[in-house]
Amino acid sequence: MAIDSHDIQGSSGRRSSVPEHQALVFIHGFLDSYATWGPLIEAMPKHAALSIAPDLRGAGRRQAHPGPYTLNHAVTDILELLDAQGLTNVALVGHSMGAQIAELIAWHAPERISSLTLITPTPLAGNVLPESARTMLRESGADALAQRDIRKQFSKNLNGDQLDQLVHPAVLMGKEAARAYYDAFIEGDTRGLSPCTYRGPTLILGATDDPVIPAKQVADIRWNRFPAAGFRSIDGSGHWPQLEQPERTAEMLASHLRLR
Q: Domains of the chain by range and CATH?
């Protein structure tokens, strides 16, 4: 995957509390882009680690990147990014559909993944949504008004500036990418039918007011597939706790990673 300098956000200062060469890799979800991670990265301890927030193909600065737009192609892209940066000690953080991708990366390359954090995760086996949601979500690619409305419906307290940033033409997910990624996360992967095989430190984060992946569903994912994982729920947040409650989300993530 082609990497530009804007995909990489580094922290300044010493990193004595972090294993050498550790990186945090943040994987965004459906309709999103690197822009969803800015507040969380800013809220993390400044000396924590190198932070990388890439765009999936068809989204953000990679809007023009051709498909296929699938979970497995996203996995390949991220692994190529890790190769290009020489990263072998990676803390993966995935949100929503990005959680599916993060888990698959850990399945493919567990020796390179130091920890796994899944935020309001779409079940790896796929997610059944009401038929009424299909058109609203699947056909919202490149449509700023539709995507703004979706985010307003699925969040609790995204503010106007955040909504403007998320639906800026420069970061919108395109039409074909939205259709294909919708189909991809709905279908999921059959590996999600069994307990997760990754054995490293894992944290599952839900949100109390998420209408997309309700807190009970997140709890079920944890108990059924990640019985040894940590589990926390973030109050006062809808589907995007990294944007809606970045300080609280950063506190939980830093504790999981043992960052100070």
A: 12-257 (3.40.50.1820)
- Rg over CA atoms, the chain: 17
Interstrand relation of 8-9 and 50-52 (parallel, antiparallel or unpaired) = antiparallel
Q: Does the pLDDT at position 1 exceed 80? A: no
Report whether pLDDT(11) > 50.
no
Share of the chain above pLDDT 70, in %: 91
The pLDDT score that the predictor gives to residue 4 is 38
DSSP state, 13?
A: S
Question: In 10 A of CB 247, how many CB atoms?
Answer: 11
Are the beta carbons of 7 and 34 closer than 8 angstroms? yes
CA 57 to chain centre: 14
CA separation, residue 24 to residues 77, 103, 138, 226, 259 (Å): 16, 15, 30, 21, 12
H-helix or E-strand spanning residue 26: strand 23-27
Of residues 63, 92, 60, the one with CA closest to residue 79 = 92
Residues 6+ apart with CB under 8 A from 198: 103, 106, 107, 110, 113, 116
Locus of tokens 């190198």: 50
In the structure encoding, which two tokens stand for residue 238, read together? 């809808």
Site of tokens 């955040």: 162
